[in-house]
Automatic annotation (TrEMBL):
The keyword Plastid does not apply. PANTHER family: ARMADILLO REPEAT-CONTAINING PROTEIN 6 (PTHR22895:SF0). The keyword Repeat applies. Keywords: Repeat. This is Armadillo repeat-containing protein 6. The lineage of its organism: Eukaryota, Viridiplantae, Streptophyta, Embryophyta, Tracheophyta.
Length: 353
């Protein structure tokens, strides 16, 4: 069994506002004091105030919050839609999504929590399902907003129940040539699957591994950085709510369809490859057993890694050197005992690293 689930106490925006109002009306506090007292009281009671708009009564209102204003307008547009978005609404939607992404990406603002608490994830998924084919700007904007809202287990759960995985994989499958859509889409995959075994499973059931291989074969020059992030996240056992992760089985599935060779290709290009570091980190996540390490070795992976380490040393690029040394160190023994690579001893690797 996993660790016991902790019950988190929450409060609605309406109940919070009413508590502040009672402090003013019944206890005679001034508005600022009433707000602070409500925050402190609820915090001491263990109430999670994430997503609550804390504003001083009389000075501002929750409805004036820019996140709420964006959501309200998007809801109006969505409610007026049938099965597909009209062209005349697309430009406004792009502006609203861009604004919402900017607000939710502001560090420490709490805006992403406000958006998700007020139905932001369900709304974005609903609109995404109605974006017509060819509306690339709207789709990229919507996917970026979706990624900005995936901040915790609750938002990931809403993404899952709203059909998010199927929507995103569908877009990735339909628009394999558009780098912007691919980068935005795989950013959603990475954010959604981080620390979430259920969503990792959902994406794998949708055969995202096969889709990734097909996209890698089409974009051999790289440029889709988030794709490598998605591979790494899908193969990382980072959900502490489960005891036995399935990611090692997923790594074997990736290996069977040739991921080792696809990830070694950027390494062969050397330091000039824009995907060099990302591909190496993804390759490290894939290398979970002797068989996969052997396939990496047979694909020329070890020689490529050692060349990159040598080149990075000559250029003084410590970042690249550390990444590749980490890859070799993870499975040092396995790499060094593969047929044809026995000359690559642990001592030789240590010398490089």
């Amino acid at each position: 069994m996993g660790p016991p689930k902790m019950t988190v106490r929450t409060i609605s925006q309406e109940a919070f506002d009413e508590m502040v109002k009672e402090n003013v009306d019944d206890l005679g506090m001034d508005p600022a004091e009433a707000l602070q007292d409500a925050i402190e009281t609820l915090t001491l009671q263990g109430v999670d105030l994430s997503g609550i708009i804390t504003c001083v009564p009389g000075e501002s209102d929750a409805k004036n919050n820019p996140v709420i204003q964006c959501l309200d307008r998007l809801k109006q547009l969505d409610s007026g839609l049938e099965e597909q978005i009209r062209d005349k609404d697309l430009d406004e939607m792009v502006e609203l999504f861009d604004r919402l992404t900017e607000l939710c990406s502001a560090e420490g603002s709490g805006n992403a929590a406000i958006a998700t608490k007020n139905g932001g994830m369900e709304l974005v998924c609903s609109i995404c399902s109605k974006i017509p084919s060819g509306s690339d700007r709207a789709l990229v904007a919507a996917l970026k907003t979706m990624a900005s809202l995936l901040l915790d287990v609750q938002s990931q759960g809403t993404f899952h129940t709203s059909g998010g995985p199927k929507i995103v994989v569908g877009f990735l499958d339909d628009t394999r040539q558009n780098i912007d859509i691919l980068n935005s889409g795989f950013a959603v995959v990475a954010s959604a699957a981080t620390g979430n075994e259920i969503l990792k499973q959902s994406f794998m059931e949708l055969k995202v591994d096969e889709l990734i291989m097909q996209i890698l074969s089409r974009h051999e020059k790289g440029g889709i950085q988030t794709l490598y992030d998605a591979i790494r996240v899908l193969l990382t056992p980072d959900d502490n709510r489960v005891v036995a992760s399935q990611v090692y089985g997923y790594a074997r599935k990736f290996a069977k369809i040739g991921i080792a060779g696809a990830l070694v290709d950027p390494l062969r290009e050397g330091l000039s490859s824009p995907s060099l570091v990302s591909a190496s980190i993804a390759l490290k996540a894939v290398a979970v057993n002797d068989e996969i390490c052997k396939s990496i070795a047979e694909s020329g992976g070890i020689d490529a890694v050692l060349r990159c380490i040598d080149d990075s040393g000559l250029q003084g690029n410590k970042t690249v050197a550390r990444v590749f040394c980490s890859l070799l160190s993870k499975k040092k023994k396995d790499f060094c005992t593969q047929d044809g690579y026995r000359h690559t001893s642990p001592e030789a690797i240590k010398k490089h690293c």
